TrEMBL record, chain A:
Component of the endosomal sorting complex required for transport II (ESCRT-II), which is required for multivesicular body (MVB) formation and sorting of endosomal cargo proteins into MVBs. Gene3D superfamilies: 6.10.140.180, Winged helix-like DNA-binding domain superfamily/Winged helix DNA-binding domain. GO terms for cellular component: ESCRT II complex. The keyword Transmembrane helix does not apply. InterPro entries: ESCRT-2_cplx_Snf8 (IPR016689), Snf8/Vps36 (IPR040608), WH-like_DNA-bd_sf (IPR036388), WH_DNA-bd_sf (IPR036390). Transmembrane segments: none annotated. The lineage of its organism: Eukaryota, Metazoa, Spiralia, Lophotrochozoa, Mollusca. Component of the endosomal sorting complex required for transport II (ESCRT-II). This is Vacuolar-sorting protein SNF8. The keyword Transport applies. One of its GO terms (biological process) is protein transport to vacuole involved in ubiquitin-dependent protein catabolic process via the multivesicular body sorting pathway.
Automatic annotation (TrEMBL), chain B:
Keywords: Cytoplasm, Endosome, Protein transport, Transport. It is found in: Cytoplasm; Endosome. One of its GO terms (molecular function) is phosphatidylinositol-3-phosphate binding. GO terms for cellular component: ESCRT II complex; late endosome membrane. The lineage of its organism: Eukaryota, Metazoa, Spiralia, Lophotrochozoa, Mollusca. Residues 1-123 form the GLUE N-terminal domain. Component of the endosomal sorting complex required for transport II (ESCRT-II). This is Vacuolar protein-sorting-associated protein 36. Its main location: cytoplasm. PROSITE patterns: GLUE. Component of the ESCRT-II complex (endosomal sorting complex required for transport II), which is required for multivesicular body (MVB) formation and sorting of endosomal cargo proteins into MVBs. Belongs to the VPS36 family. It comes from Elysia marginata. Residues 170-197 are annotated as: Disordered.
Length: 248, 432
């Protein structure tokens, strides 16, 4: 007829049961997530294989091509997977180097927020190889340089600088970089800034800091003080009025 | 309580009456049922309960579903003294129930009686037990039988007989009765066959998830067997890939840690459905102008988002990602961009003295830029290119360029000193 009023034990039992249900629920969700991860890997492997093997057939059918691209987009697979081949190696013909060019620029764009558009060639090589997927051939530094050469026609916005025995790829030109503005902000307080200031406070690579300061020196935006102790300091005349007024 | 089923009260051919007891009420857990006063009969196969007044009202429970039987001192009776007392209680208990201590006699039913499905439940609406309840409030599954008459020895006798019958399992020695009788004797094979369907609850959920995963895995490997298969199932696979990606994003924020792959995935998702190609749009000028139009449509928004300018190399990457496998060469891209100004498109090519080429959004109208910059200088009193760069969040080079342009148009005047280049409002024009 009427239910027995619940006692403390019943309440305890109930909350215990609920906790167990919750645990079980989490367990199921975790399992499900692991399964999803596996399915994603399956998808990835399959898409990579198809991009390599059936490239021409996929290109022929516009509707399917778009669907294939949608799949690549959701799973994060590179649809461009031409292999180098003999003629590409010998004559530089074929799509291989063009595709590589796209992949190189992509890596540079993706990392530019972090590195300000400057990346060492070895890091670039590693990242390009990783983003090409598991069917990728080994990419050499020579391959990268060849691919970048093909981009030359698109202007000086993308350039390679020799630094010591290695290369540095710059993807954000002086016209577009905000690094100089950031340097000015850093210098605001003291009126000057040193390279190690930038490295320490902004977490920049030394090369990035050096290039920014050199550029500003060259453009006449900064003056260099060779007698400021162990390290050169860079002064910004445009900031000096602010500086002196703050002293008054 | 869902172990009980209706029956007509007649015995099966091989079934014999063993014991009978009057004045028995059936309880569902603690709850009273409509089966208040009747006879309880023990046969070799079943327990039958017949209403005292309405002789057609008979319910039965197969002995085969009883998995346990025990006797306990009744704490229950004390709590129910407002009924007649003393009394003894019997209860059936399903295996998954919590231990229930206040009954006089306890039975455990091992498997659900398959006949008591949800459809037949409507006949027994008065018995409130449902399979759903079964999982959430296990104790409600208890079936109690209360002997109203204070006949302890008789009741004890009944209990002993019941125990004996359950132990003897005489119902097994006969072939399963046919017709209506199957209601009372679920054969092990058929009940097993129905198990998956009849097992909701956690195990059921886990199983169905497992089955679904298996199915999905199968679908993926089938679709990717060869190209033809994939083309046929492309739509489903596109949806599946999106579902998987969404689920993974929900859980860990993104499909991968790798910044390049994230970015690639983003660029690819901006795909264009009908890339302009030489095959579709012919050779020469027509091809290039169509291409230029498509590029302008595609790029206007991203260019504005990235501050009104984008280097041609970035453009090259973006465009080719949007085109997917239909690659565009750097030469063709450059030619198309050169045509943009001529075609009056909202973006156009611009090359700096340094040799850097960019596509620039036309929203940066020259006159607008000049008047904006002049107003800025007016407001601040004077500005250097570095200061303007900071105010606008532009690069220093572009800020300087803006000031020089404003100077050329008479908006500002320069003050060139050893400290650098400074710009002031052009009073020569405004105050003359």
């Amino acid at each position: 007829m009427s239910r027995r009023p619940a006692g403390i034990a019943a309440i305890k039992n109930k909350s215990l049961a609920q906790a167990k249900y919750r645990d079980k629920g989490n367990e199921i969700a975790d399992n499900q997530f692991a399964q999803m991860g596996k399915q994603m890997q399956m998808f990835k492997g399959n898409l990579e294989d198809f991009a390599t093997k059936h490239r021409d057939d996929i290109r022929k059918d516009p509707e399917f091509r778009l669907q294939f691209q949608e799949m690549c987009a959701s799973i994060g697979v590179d649809p461009l997977a031409s292999s180098k081949g003999f003629w590409a190696e010998m004559l530089g013909v074929g799509d291989f180097y063009y595709e590589l060019g796209i992949q190189i620029v992509e890596v540079c764009m993706a990392t530019s927020k972090r590195n300000g558009g400057l990346i060492g060639i070895e890091e670039l090589r590693r990242k390009v190889e990783a983003s090409r997927g598991r069917n990728s051939q080994a990419i050499s530094i020579d391959d990268l340089l060849r691919a970048i050469k093909k981009l030359k026609i698109l202007g000086n916005g993308f350039s390679v600088h020799k630094v010591g025995g290695s290369f540095l790829v710059q993807s954000v030109p002086g016209e577009l970089t905000l690094d100089h503005t950031v340097v000015l902000q850093q210098a605001q307080e003291k009126g000057n800034v040193t390279k190690s200031d930038l490295v320490n406070t902004l977490g920049w690579e030394e090369e990035r800091a050096r290039r920014a300061l050199d550029f500003m020196l060259k453009e006449g935006l900064a003056w260099v003080d060779h007698q400021s102790g162990s390290e050169h300091s860079f002064w910004f005349p445009s900031l000096i009025p602010d500086f002196s007024s703050s002293l008054n | 309580m869902d172990r009980f089923s209706w029956c007509d009260g007649s015995l099966f051919p091989e079934e014999h009456l063993v014991e009978q007891q009057g004045g028995v009420a059936v309880y569902d857990g603690h709850d009273k049922t409509p089966f208040v006063s009747g006879f309880l009969m023990l046969t070799t196969h079943r327990l039958l309960w017949r209403d005292q007044k309405n002789r057609n009202c008979v319910i039965s429970l197969s002995l085969s579903v009883i998995s346990g039987l025990d006797e306990q001192p009744s704490g229950f009776t004390k709590r129910r003294t407002h009924f007649r007392s003393p009394r003894s209680t019997m209860s059936w208990r399903h295996r998954s129930c919590q231990v229930f201590t206040c009954c006089g006699l306890r039975l455990e039913a091992s498997t659900p009686n398959r006949v008591w499905s949800r459809s037949s439940q409507s006949n027994l609406a008065k018995i409130t037990c449902t399979t759903v309840k079964f999982f959430h409030t296990p104790t409600s599954e208890l079936v109690e039988m209360t002997c109203i008459q204070p006949l302890a020895p008789v009741y004890l006798q009944f209990y002993r007989s019941l125990k004996e019958e359950v132990k003897k399992k005489r119902w097994e020695s006969h072939t399963a009765p046919s017709g209506t009788s199957s209601a009372a004797t679920p054969s092990s094979s058929s009940s097993q066959g129905l198990l998956p369907r009849q097992r909701p609850g956690i195990v059921g959920i886990e199983r169905s998830i497992q089955a679904k995963n298996k199915e999905t895995n199968k679908n993926i490997s089938q679709a990717f067997q060869d190209l033809r298969n994939l083309m046929e199932k492309a739509k489903d696979m596109v949806n599946l890939s999106k579902t998987i990606a969404t689920k993974i994003k929900e859980k860990q924020g993104d499909i991968t840690e790798d910044e390049t792959i994230k970015f690639k995935s983003y660029l690819l998702s901006m795909g264009i459905s009908n890339p302009v190609t030489r095959e579709t749009h012919g050779e020469g000028d027509k091809y290039y102008s169509e291409l230029a139009r498509q590029l302008a449509t595609l790029l206007t928004k991203p260019i504005e988002e990235s501050g009104g300018m984008m280097t041609l190399t970035d453009v090259y990457c973006r465009v080719n990602r949007a085109r997917g496998m239909e690659l565009l060469s750097p030469e063709d891209l450059l030619h198309a961009c050169e045509l943009m100004e001529f075609l009056g498109l909202p973006v156009r090519l611009r090359t700096f003295d340094s040799g850097v080429s960019v596509l620039q959004a036309q929203s940066q109208n020259e006159e607008e830029v000049v008047s904006e910059t002049s107003a800025m200088v007016e407001k601040q009193g004077n500005l250097t290119s570095e200061q303007l760069a900071q105010l606008l969040g532009l690069s220093v080079v572009l800020a300087k360029e803006r000031l020089l342009m404003a100077e050329k148009m008479g908006g500002v005047c320069r003050d060139e000193t050893v400290e650098g280049l400074n710009f002031y409002p052009n009073r020569f024009l405004s105050e003359a």
